[in-house]
Amino acid sequence: MIPVRIAGLALDARQQPVVILKPLDEDLGHGRILPIWIGGLEAAAILKGADDTPPPRPLTLDLMRSMLEALDAEVERIAVTRIDDGTFYAEITLNTPLGDRVLDARPSDAIGLSLRTGSVIWVAEDVLDQAGIADEREEQVDEEEEVKAFSEFLEHVDPEDFQG
């Protein structure tokens, strides 16, 4: 397993949200990145998790964090474990009073929960080998502009845009 960070949240050429993960020990423009396509609502949840402003009412991932705290459980590990036919799979390992529990999760939900709990995200090495691409970025992306553009997209998106 390789520890990663969220290197960005972007829109591809078809306006589909992509979360980009990058190994912690690699610098910008070197090594690999792992793009994972997600839904618009999931991207909004990740974006909200990166924002320090609490929502007026708990969102689903905020509720999950509160439930874990109420049950004396904590997130031990977030891991993107495999890719099968283009679909990524993740697991959330919880440390509970009854012992460790491993839950199947969508990567977008696991990543969003990691932001809310401060948990490190891990990616299986074979997933990075199979789906990672060369990081050829030459200059630092202006995160504030990227977040602003993505937020504008989310304000105008219609859930029907994501139906098959």
Automatic annotation (TrEMBL):
<dbReference type="GO" id="GO:0004518">
    <property type="term" value="F:nuclease activity"/>
</dbReference>
<dbReference type="InterPro" id="IPR003729">
    <property type="entry name" value="Bi_nuclease_dom"/>
</dbReference>
<protein>
    <submittedName>
        <fullName>Uncharacterized protein</fullName>
    </submittedName>
</protein>
<dbReference type="InterPro" id="IPR036104">
    <property type="entry name" value="BFN_sf"/>
</dbReference>
<dbReference type="Pfam" id="PF02577">
    <property type="entry name" value="BFN_dom"/>
</dbReference>
